[in-house]
Amino acid sequence: MCSKYVCCLCIWCRNCCCGKKDNGDGEVVMTDITNRDNGAFQMEMVGNQTVQQRQYSNRGGTTAGTNQAKYENRTNLQAEQAEGHYYSTKIATPKVDEQKDQEDEANKEQYAFDPPVTQPTGDVYYAIYYFDVSEPSYIQCCKGERLIVLEKNESWSFVSLENGKQGYIPTSYIAPVESLESHDWYFGALGRQESEKLLTRAPASRGTFMVRDCLSRPGLFSLSVLQTNEISHYLIFHKNKEYFIEQGITFRDVPALVNHYRENASGILGRLITPCKQPPAPPILSLRLNTLRVDRSEVKRMELLDAGNFGKVYKGRWGRHIVALKTPKQGAINTKDFVAEAERMAKLRHKNVVQLFAVVAEEPLYIITEYMCNGSLLDYMREGLGLERWTMLEQITVAIQVAEGMSYLEAMKYIHCDLRAANVLVGENLVCKIADFGLSKFLQDPEYVARGRTFPVKWAAPEVLAHDTFSHKADVWSYGILLYEVATKGAVLYPGMTNQEIQDYVTKGEFLKQPDDCDDLFYTIMSQCWGKAMEDRPNFASIKKFLCDNFSALDEPFFDND
């Protein structure tokens, strides 16, 4: 018998399909695979998760019927495997007659084996975070495990592991094997201040490093390294399809550059030793497959986070996940209309837009969204971590992220209608996400009303105040007001003025004056957002480009040899 060779569809046998043949003396010799005999495949489906043990029967003799059965069954197996099914198989000779079966019964030898090792075709990825199972259709995956992606969208990927098991895993938890995301030293979009916080937290030591996107120069990277008494930042240039920190020493890609400086310190202050510890896994964009409405019993309300015009916001738990629960004021929102709109809102996927997960559609309404640990941008500036440090770098970091999120909403033809600092949420590492987009159209609250109409007055463009004309350019006006809030750390807008007085002031062509200590260029982009005519205002993509082009020096590396 073959004692040590198995191929993708064969089982140990005297004359196996891989062409390795037992000569009867315990020696394995090669043979032409067209001479296979002694068996025809029979299959039994056992599903994607469970594999049963099957038996092998060895018989002598070859007939045309045997070969035909073998061919037909293998063809069926390949077709079924292409559809994502897994099978266990057994080899047995078709019954020629009952007497022959009884005579050969004594020679039958049995073996238990795993499913065929032939893997489905697809792109090979790595799991970059551990994922546990909370739903039957999910699949547990360990960090660093290889998998094949069979289907993928922004939220979920249907994957096959090397052991043959299949299921769903969050798309944000995996990365292609050749991508930067698959390396534990790559941190994506991260500003200088936040990189320094991560590099100096325990158990950091000299030589701890990371590679991150340079926020002020899109398309380039920064290498940040913890030295003995300081953190050094180096810009990684990319020219002529080569990457380098210093002229004359170039590399084909960023991993090759990192590997070089892990071995050599030439051109930088110290050798790269240990990748910085990664932050927790990113939030899952959709916590349940193909589900928007959930039962109230599935959700547990925890402590109160905020209360405002819209209603109350609680920290909550949905299954194993920490979420935010928004509960509108009684009668403040049209539930039927909102649930219909939520179907559309839940499809929006962007790193700077808060994800809507689900709704409890009965009164009182629960809107289940992504949880952001540092609350609203307004509270962050007035009372939170923004009190400790709120330099021009932090202001531009926020402004760029909000512009990027709004550029996405603009591209998706979604008008926010209520963009302001209170509706931007802050997570770890000063990550900002736009929230409550589209909700103001459902509100019936006095704070939003002037002359019987409903809108956020202090942030409203002239055409909104005069004609109720909401548009992307009206959102641009509101963005300029948000920049004013950012520049003043959340100062009160139009102090001492009523809603009607604000409306009259704005419709006459007046707008907020430049705050004290506000950068001239920063106020320039604000005033451009306040063009009286809609066509005079830039779009959000242009705003982001302006900020990146004019404030790149704020995130310059300490060592720049350009």
Layout of helices and strands:
Layout: E1 20-22, E2 28-30, E3 40-45, H1 64-82, E4 87-92, H2 98-104, E5 123-127, E6 146-152, E7 156-161, E8 166-170, E9 174-176, E10 186-189, H3 192-200, E11 208-213, E12 221-226, E13 231-239, E14 242-244, H4 254-263, E15 274-275, E16 299-307, E17 311-318, E18 321-328, H5 335-345, E19 356-360, E20 366-370, H6 377-382, H7 392-411, E21 424-426, E22 432-434, E23 449-450, E24 453-454, H8 462-467, H9 472-487, H10 499-507, H11 520-529, H12 540-550
Parallel strand pairs: 10-11, 11-15
Antiparallel strand pairs: 1-2, 3-4, 5-6, 5-9, 6-7, 7-8, 11-12, 12-13, 13-14, 16-17, 17-18, 18-20, 19-20, 21-22, 23-24
Helix pairs in contact: 7-9, 7-12, 9-11
Regions with pLDDT < 50 over 5+ consecutive residues? 1-96, 106-118, 442-452, 556-562
**What share of residues are in beta strands?**
15-25%
Q: What is the CATH C-level name of the largest domain?
A: Mainly Alpha
User: First CA to last CA: what distance?
Assistant: 68 Å
Structural class: alpha+beta
Our count of domains comes out at 5
Overview of this structure, please?
- The protein has 562 residues and is of the alpha+beta class.
- The chain folds into five domains: 88 residues, no CATH class; 58 residues, Roll (SH3 type barrels); 88 residues, SH2 domain (SHC Adaptor Protein, 2-Layer Sandwich); 75 residues, Phosphorylase Kinase, domain 1 (2-Layer Sandwich); 178 residues, Transferase(Phosphotransferase) domain 1 (Transferase(Phosphotransferase), domain 1, Orthogonal Bundle), CATH 1.10.510.10.
- It has twelve helices and 24 strands.
- Strands 10, 11, 12, 13, 14 and 15 form a six-stranded mixed sheet that branches.
- Strand 13 and strand 14 form a beta hairpin.
- The longest helix is centred in the last third of the chain and has 20 residues.
- The N terminus and C terminus are likely disordered.
